[in-house]
Write a structure and sequence with these properties.
This protein is α/β, with parallel strands linked by helices. The chain has two domains: 61 residues; 137 residues, Vaccinia Virus protein VP39 (Rossmann fold), CATH 3.40.50. Strands 3-2-1-4-5-7-6 form a seven-stranded mixed beta sheet, with helices on one face. A hairpin with a 7-residue loop joins strand 6 and strand 7. Helix 2 packs antiparallel against helix 3. The protein is elongated. Bound molecules: S-adenosylmethionine. S-adenosylmethionine binds next to helix 5, helix 7 and strand 2.
Length: 231
Amino acid sequence: MLAWAIVLGLVLGGLDLGWIGLALVQGLLAGAIAYYLELPIWWLFINLLFFPSIALARQWQLAPHWYLAALAALLLTQLGAVRGRVPLYLSSRQAKTALLGLLPTGPGSRFLDIGSGTGGMLAFLARARSDLVLDGVESAPALWLLSRLRLGPRAHIALGDFWHADLSRYDVVYAFLSPEPMSRLWDKAKREMRPGSLFISNSFEVPGIAPDASIELHDLHRGRLMLWQIA
Ligand SMILES: C[S@@+](CC[C@H](N)C(=O)[O-])C[C@H]1O[C@@H](n2cnc3c(N)ncnc32)[C@H](O)[C@@H]1O
């Protein structure tokens, strides 16, 4: 709104840039405001690109099937956002390195990435720790397929809903999701995970439950890893 108010002020002040120019100015302003407010990085990109994309699509007079294709691509990759308000964004290199330092050192430990996305975290751990048993579960079909092709037999990645995963089989469960599922997920972790096992959340707190340890990541998400040892 603030970005549009500034654009309106510029127009009333006599600036004439055409629709594309105005949309670009609005995008830059909205992106700068997101940066100033220290919003998560994905909001910065959404703010930056939303109106410029609409203006460009109008300008190029895209055929309707492109919109349909974009919708299909969104559904295949962002089903988690549609169903459970957990969109796709990827763990940073800093998160992967920090997580590696938290894993049990004994061979054969079992690790689960719930909402494993494109399989980046699993691929990193596969390279770093050949002794780990690696599992993932992902609900978006395109992401599941991509991660299956990427990991091959090195990890078992299920296409499905993490609410149906049995967490009792794992020494470490990693979640990089959104604020939405955290309360319910913590209840599930407490109910199912074995004493001594680790529940680790990237960036999203469990409301009202302080973590046993927390590591700042200094990454683009301005994230942190929070770790709970199950009692
Ligand atoms: C923020 S991404 C994290 C991706 C990956 N774990 C990483 O760290 O790079 C969250 C992922 O969870 C998936 N997801 C959301 N809800 C899910 C559910 N109920 N069951 C399985 N996957 C889900 C989304 O499709 C998305 O790929």
